[in-house]
């Protein structure tokens, strides 16, 4: 966990699907978990739209370098940061490196996460429970705390929640719980920061084909039909989710805060 995209036979589609239009020109963004999956697709799309992008990753150096090279291919600059964002000092170091390098921070995408399937709540160990919350929600607190002094009027924070927050998931009890916390965090942080002109929103993907699932995030049985229970009838691709992050990061969404977008294959949720 979370796995190497470079080792997947059926590689996710991360490539931006349309030309850039300068919607993030001159901006600086952090995308956590930016080495692969939704994070990679978002980082490269941001670069196409003119942003300089810092990507954080846990240990997948090959994936991170590939993403950084694709950011460079878009004519932008990348910064790679390796470390466990569940450690508050790592979060501080990431923000410091970004500000030292580029002198500003405009967009924070809290995307990094992990999940572990368990069929019974008694199978969830104390270590797993604490680890999942540490990675999925504590890291968001640490990063926002580190970034807050550098976020000015017009900045944007986008958090990655999940369809499991709305539907529940019988095999992802701890993961779904963190996603509920992320949604509440998003709405509360929006109320806290909107007076300073900083917008906070979230994206709640459905089943998206990323390294998270085949490298231990889903059971073998679930992988056989992954995403087929959506109304569209298939899993989504990272480049079908990244535009939601872009929309919430740029001025197109200037009248939105505390909201959640749902690229989930047509599943109707109350959110």
TrEMBL record:
Pfam families: adh_short_C2. Residues 1-12 have a biased composition (Basic and acidic residues). One of its GO terms (molecular function) is oxidoreductase activity, acting on CH-OH group of donors. SUPFAM superfamilies: NAD(P)-binding Rossmann-fold domains. It comes from Tsuneonella aeria. This is SDR family oxidoreductase. Keywords: Oxidoreductase. Residues 1-22 are annotated as: Disordered. Belongs to the short-chain dehydrogenases/reductases (SDR) family. Gene3D superfamilies: NAD(P)-binding Rossmann-like Domain. It comes from the Bacteria. InterPro entries: NAD(P)-bd_dom_sf, Sc_DH/Rdtase_CS, SDR_fam.
């Amino acid at each position: 966990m979370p796995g190497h995209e470079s080792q997947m036979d059926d590689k996710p589609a991360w490539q931006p699907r349309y030309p850039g239009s300068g919607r993030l020109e001159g901006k600086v963004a952090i995308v956590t978990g930016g080495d692969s999956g939704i994070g990679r697709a978002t980082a490269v799309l941001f670069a196409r739209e003119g942003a300089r992008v810092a990507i954080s990753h846990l240990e997948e150096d090959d994936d991170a370098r590939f993403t950084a090279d694709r950011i460079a291919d878009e004519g932008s600059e990348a910064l790679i940061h390796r470390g466990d964002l569940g450690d508050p000092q790592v979060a501080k170091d990431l923000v410091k490196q970004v500000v030292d390098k580029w002198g500003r921070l405009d967009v924070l995408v809290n995307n990094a996460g992990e999940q572990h399937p368990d069929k019974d709540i008694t199978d969830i160990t104390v270590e797993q429970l604490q680890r999942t919350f540490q990675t999925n929600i504590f890291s968001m607190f640490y990063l926002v705390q580190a970034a807050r002094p550098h976020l000015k009027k017009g900045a944007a924070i986008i958090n990655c929640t999940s369809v499991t927050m709305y539907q529940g998931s019988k095999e992802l009890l701890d993961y779904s719980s963190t996603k509920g916390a992320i949604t509440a965090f998003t709405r509360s942080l929006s109320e806290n920061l909107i007076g300073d002109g900083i917008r906070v929103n979230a994206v709640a993907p459905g089943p998206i084909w990323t390294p998270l699932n085949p490298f231990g995030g889903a059971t073998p049985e679930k992988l056989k039909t992954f995403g087929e229970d959506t109304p569209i009838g298939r899993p989504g691709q990272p480049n079908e989710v990244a535009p939601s992050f872009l929309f919430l990061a740029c001025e197109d969404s200037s009248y939105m805060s505390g909201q959640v977008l749902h690229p989930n294959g047509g599943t109707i949720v109350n959110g």
